[in-house]
Amino acid sequence: MNVEFQGRETEITRGGKVTTLRYYGTRAEMEELASGGSGAVVGSGAAVGSGAAALNPNRTARVYQTSPNIWKCEVREELAADGGSAEPPDYSWGSKSCQLHGGMLSRPLEARSGYRTNWNHYLFAKDGETQVPAWYETASGGAVIADSGARATYAWGKNMGECPDGFKAIRDPTKLGTDSFDTAVYTITETARFRTAAAAGAMVAAKLNKIGTPIETFGITGGNWKCDDAEVSWNGKYWLARLTWTRSGDDAGWDTDLYDSVN
Known about the structure:
Number of domains: 3
Order of helices and strands: EEHEEEEEEEHEEE
Number of helices: 2
Strand order of the largest sheet: 5-9-12-11-10
Distance between the termini: 50 Å
Oligomer: single chain
Radius of gyration: 31 Å
Structural class: mainly beta
């Protein structure tokens, strides 16, 4: 196996560069090279070896015949602007790859930082009382009024049906009709392929609705992750196992009193 004369090319592109090497030899040598056999070195200096490197989406190989006994293999590699290769996921059996998604999680208004009771509560006062108490603007304890003496005169309620007998509403909610807010959250789908259903099932077993960590978090920090979906399916060639992890809505993380952790 040899590199063809004038078989080295480098193309500069807007996103980086494309390096091409053309080898020649026997058909067996070229097919081995294209399928991940060792020996081919391209622009980054990394060999086109077996396993993940052979499946690198930035590398391609084309085998073709130029004479009865001479076969060629053209190896192309796309390099980033800094000259390095992207790091592809490992697609070998049982090795996990991940996808990141963004979405919204609806949370109770009471969970919002800086929450005030008057956002989503009416203030009721005993008939004849019209003065708004000083604590109205700062109260944050929900429907509970901290001052026991004030409870005889004032009450909170989320709707008019909660108005006590002998009371009337003197203030409407400042965010009338709003009981929740959206928080941006991330989900990661973790996927691996297996030869058997049992092996795929073992990946997802005992993880649903438990706190854990996906194999790749894409640099996202803070909070923690909970498995919200698990699936095993047959795609006609192999078994696929999928886990979907949802990051907590805030840095406090999913409540460990409510959810177990993956062992």
